[in-house]
Amino acid sequence: MGLVVQKYGGSSVADAEGIKRVAKRIVDAKKNGHQVVVVVSAMGDTTDELIDLAEQVSPIPAGREFDMLLTAGERISMALLAMAIKNLGHEAQSFTGSQAGVITDSVHNKARIIDVTPGRIRTALDEGNIAIVAGFQGVSQDKKDITTLGRGGSDTTAVALAAALDAEVCEIYTDVDGVFTADPRVVKKARKIDWISFEDMLELASSGSKVLLHRCVEYARRYNIPIHVRSSFSGLQGTWVSNEPRGDRKVEQAIISGVAHDTSEAKITVVGVPDKPGEAAAIFRTIADAEVNIDMVVQNVSAASTGLTDISFTLPKTEGRKAIDALEKQKGAIGFESLRYDDQIGKISLVGAGMKTNPGVTASFFEALSDAGVNIELISTSEIRISVVTRADDVNEAVRAVHTAFGLDSESAEAVVYGGTGR
Q1: Taking a C-beta distance cutoff of 8 angstroms, is the pair 341, 268 a contact?
Q2: pLDDT confidence bin for 253, thresholds 50/70/90
Q3: How far apart are CA 100 and CA 96, in angstroms?
Q4: What sections of 275-418 are H helices per DSSP?
Q5: Which strand (E) or helix (H) includes residue 72?
Q6: Maximal CA-CA distance, the chain
Q7: 403: which DSSP letter?
Q8: What predicted TM-score, i.e. pTM, was given to this entire model?
Q9: Among the four residues 11, 196, 321, 393, which has the most C-beta atoms within 10 Å?
């Protein structure tokens, strides 16, 4: 039996009973002959509560101190879990991200992992211990400050450790039984996927599917680490995410893997942009210099009478103010007329590698939205994804309509969501 990395989310360790249940599952893996490394998130809504507390104290908390505060949640989880495991008669040692050797860049609140040096973890394993690591955190390479990896960063911690330790698999335990064809909170008839390729999972994750973080899947694909997404509340097999189906199991690549949605984005329209070379470059250089990530971009056809055009793009709501301020400062240099900001939008994405060889997918997608009375504002495509922006109020209905139109509805029981508040 080889080394296994297990990651448990906040809903799995939300209270004392949950921690004891997780401890038993970890001990069972150890009894089965595995070396076990565990990555834990903060308990329940602890991170959100710490963010709320910080905002009450300071409207714009300093990045370094904010990271120091947020990492407290995972340290509580790892210590309690180690205690619970010891209570079951097995030795466990807990480690912060920095003690585990998770080295990051210096960008506070959304640091990226640049190296993992798990010497202390290997020593703990060699001594027969179970290693418990606080997820979501690391230490900057230059200043040795504590950093956090951004929302969902514990998944990335787990995959990075799995790669560094040459683990057989990285098991991501959450509050659903695997990856579904849509969010089971929205589509009750969503169907669990047995196996999905890294390629399709990357598109779903970047399109709003919250079961796995995009960076986590990207890291796993780069180092070819199989991910097993499953529930800590049941003993069912989950979803395997890998380059190829494991073992002798032959799973045919589905035409459509799933429907993802995202209501965390906003839309900015730059109105009255001179239609000449360099204008779009100036706009997006301004956005890049403000360290704002953008998603979809659409430029309208310019009006012949004025020679002006509009450019619209989507971005995270949390970065809307920063983008608007940056563009306003460059208004004179760029020469646009005005800015429009809209945060009542939603994105719906259809994902599937089978789109490459199956004509008619695009037509069926737009027909389903039309039949549901959903108006489309922006469209973006790739080889295996079609995304549209609609009104936020239409998102849930649109997801259900598209899911049904492509025959993704399960004929069996409704999907179960075991825990979590969705905050």
Answers
A1: yes
A2: low
A3: 6
A4: 279-289, 320-329, 331-334, 361-371, 395-405
A5: helix 63-87
A6: 80
A7: H
A8: 0.88
A9: 196
